[in-house]
């Protein structure tokens, strides 16, 4: 897995399966950014997602291109980009659809404070 403070970009189903398994075993909150290169809101939110990864070292951040890994996107029923999925130990806890920075931060804080409690 990538070091703390980094967004882990995955490009194959095998890599996704391996890295997601390791992240689930870490028992950390996982945030997955389902993105696409052709999506302007995705490009807008990408640097903000990187900054969140740098600030929240206790969270695992993934970036999944829906065109590269459409089977993974289908597994999570992704309908629009960007979609952010918040997971813990294999269970989806929350979803944010769109480049809604404040909503993403609010969900991140909600689920990291629950983890710390």
Q: Can you characterise this structure?
A:
There is one protein chain. With 117 residues, this protein is of the alpha/beta class. It contains four helices and five strands. It has a five-stranded mixed beta sheet with strand order 1-3-2-4-5, sandwiched between helices. Helix 2 links the parallel strand 2 and strand 3.
Helix content: 40-55%
Q: Which spans have pLDDT < 50 for at least 5 consecutive residues? A: none
Instruction: Give the strand order of the largest sheet, numbering strands 1, 2, ... along the chain.
Output: 1-3-2-4-5
How far from one another are the termini? Answer: 26 Å
Question: Any chance you could write out the topology, listing elements then pairs?
Answer:
Layout: E1 7-10, H1 13-25, E2 29-35, H2 40-55, E3 59-65, H3 70-75, E4 83-88, E5 91-97, H4 101-116
Parallel strand pairs: 1-3, 2-3
Antiparallel strand pairs: 2-4, 4-5
Short key terms for the protein model shown above:
5 strands; alpha/beta; 117 residues; 4 helices
Short description, anyone?
The chain is α/β, with parallel strands linked by helices and 117 residues long. It has helices spanning 13-25, 40-55, 70-75, 101-116, and strands at 7-10, 29-35, 59-65, 83-88, 91-97.
